[in-house]
Design goal:
55% helix; 4-stranded mixed beta sheet; 15 strands; alpha/beta; 5-stranded mixed barrel
Length: 525
């Protein structure tokens, strides 16, 4: 192989595959060495050199000169050594050059296969490392294939897959379409690195705002949390480090231009932008937008909040299928108990009743009830859910008293639950009765409408029948008139024929007589 051919080949591999030159040269040496071993044994005494400047490849083999040869690959006798140009003594070493032409076809094929394999492995490793460092970023690719397993996306250096679970269910992806997605994971497989993409991950939404909102990209506005149900609706909580910048306005943009760009990318997914606050009660209230919160009570033990909504906005706070409440809980990280104003009043009455019942039990004084309320226990249900350790941590309550309080609170809680279930059952029965009445009324209306329609149809049918009868009468009259006309014509036609015949008969004798009278006169003359 010519030197410039090797140099050009190395340069092409380095540029096309994006590999290190030193690695490619070393791989070439190892590949050639593996091919040489195919013909010349284990290769412990073989050496391959590649001159990077000229591209010249040299292969040298070193063998020891001995009297009795045991291994021809490593040893040779003195006579053979001298025939090869050796001028040393017994026990020395002969270094000989092996021309590449002597390798044979099989050795060259082995070297070629190993070279390609090593380069391919190195390329795959580089792709794996490159995309592993980009996990959490957004990439743009072309859709190459769409099937039941997912979407295959061509990213240039490799192919990525977007499984069905990572696709927005409302969008239809087509082959050849340019698409943006979030790098979720990179896995090693027997076929090379496998890049997993996602368009449903909450961080995909977060990264899109980094692209569309300069204040977010620069870090002035921070996205504190994201709650998302892909394809339907999302909520993001934003905070501004600069008091002069409105974080919500920055993300929404002029006439909603910035947030609409993200909405279009997500195929019409609705996005609520709310302002984050370190005051959790305020943040919880904002997270339930567009509903307005009357009151928010945080649990003293943390992890939950009770929110009171105006009665006419209760369904708005819950959302369709409970979606708004779920997203608010994800956004805040709290378990949110949403009550309407009337429900909250009923709940307060039940809590007061349960505490009053607890105060009436033996061993629980009014002072202890006050201490429990100050500690964050607003009802017997709260106390029943707690532990003896929590209650004994309250000043003035010992283990025996705590055990008694827990036991009584659990009994009262069970009783209150039974009452609530009974009330709910009665309310459900009342609703069911109302529904039955409404259904019966609707049924009656439908029957009346049906009867009215049938009456209208009957009237229309009668009118149509009358019209048909009138048409038939007119038709019969016309037919009778036509028959009378024909009869009159027939009566008139015979008399006319007879008259014609009489006239013809009368005319004939006159003509004959005149002729007979004239003839004798002519002859007499």
């Amino acid at each position: 192989m010519a030197g410039f051919d090797v140099t050009d080949a190395l340069s092409q591999i380095i540029s096309l595959r994006g590999l290190d030159r030193e690695f490619v040269v070393e791989t070439l040496k190892e590949s050639i060495l593996a091919g040489v071993r195919k013909k010349y044994g284990k290769g412990e005494n073989l050496e391959v050199n590649v001159d990077e400047s000229t591209g010249e490849i040299t292969v040298k083999r070193t063998r020891k000169v001995v009297e009795e040869v045991e291994d021809e690959d490593l040893e040779l006798d003195l006579e053979k050594a001298k025939s090869l140009g050796y001028d040393g003594e017994m026990g020395g070493e002969l270094v000989e050059d092996i021309p590449l032409e002597d390798f044979g076809r099989s050795a060259i094929m082995v070297a070629k296969q190993i070279m390609f394999q090593r380069v391919r492995e190195a390329e795959r490793e580089k792709v794996y490392i490159g995309f592993s460092e980009r996990i959490g970023e957004i990439v743009t690719g072309t859709v190459q294939q769409v099937d039941k397993r997912g979407v295959i996306v061509n990213l240039g250096r490799t192919e990525a897959i977007m499984p069905l679970r990572e696709q927005i269910y409302t969008e239809r992806i087509r082959q050849g379409q340019t698409i943006r997605a979030y790098i979720l994971d990179v896995r090693r497989t027997s076929k090379g690195p496998q890049v997993i993409l996602s368009r449903t991950h909450p961080d995909f939404l977060k990264k899109l705002f980094h692209f569309e909102v300069p204040e977010v990209y620069e870090g002035v506005v921070q996205i504190k949390s994201v709650a998302r149900e892909s394809g339907d609706r999302s909520k993001i909580a934003v905070y501004s480090k600069d008091d002069k910048i409105d974080p919500v306005g920055a993300c929404v943009g002029v006439k909603g231009s910035r947030v609409q760009a993200v909405v279009r990318e997500l195929n019409g997914e609705k996005i609520d932008v709310v302002q984050w606050s370190s005051e959790m009660s305020l943040f919880v209230g904002r997270s339930l937008s567009p509903a307005k919160v009357m009151k928010c009570v945080l649990s003293e033990r943390g992890g939950s909040a009770r929110v009171v909504i105006v009665d006419d906005q209760y369904s708005l706070a819950i959302g369709r299928g409970g979606q708004n409440a779920r997203l608010a809980a994800k956004l805040t990280g709290l378990k949110i108990d949403i009550l309407s104003e009337s429900q909250y009043r009923e709940q307060l009455d039940r809590d007061k009743e349960s505490l009053a019942m607890l105060a009436k039990t033996r061993g629980v004084s009014a002072k202890m009830i006050d201490r429990l309320i100050l500690a964050g226990f607003s009802s017997a249900a709260d106390i029943a859910k707690s532990s003896e350790k929590e209650i004994t941590s309250i000043k003035g309550i010992g283990k025996k008293t705590a055990a008694k309080i827990l036991e009584d609170a659990q009994e009262i809680d069970e009783e209150m639950k039974r009452k609530a279930e009974e009330a709910a059952r009665k309310e459900a029965e009342a609703r069911l009765a109302e529904r039955k009445v409404a259904l019966e009324a609707k049924k009656q209306e439908e029957e009346e409408e049906k009867r009215a329609k049938e009456g209208e149809q009957a009237e229309e049918t009668e009118e149509e029948e009358e019209e048909q009868e009138e048409e038939e009468v007119e038709k019969e009259q016309k037919e009778e008139g036509a028959e009378e006309t024909e009869e009159v014509e027939e009566e008139e036609s015979p008399s006319t024929a007879e008259g014609n015949e009489v006239e013809s008969e009368e005319e004939k004798p006159i003509e004959t007589g005149e002729t007979s009278e004239e003839k004798p006169v002519e002859s007499g003359e």
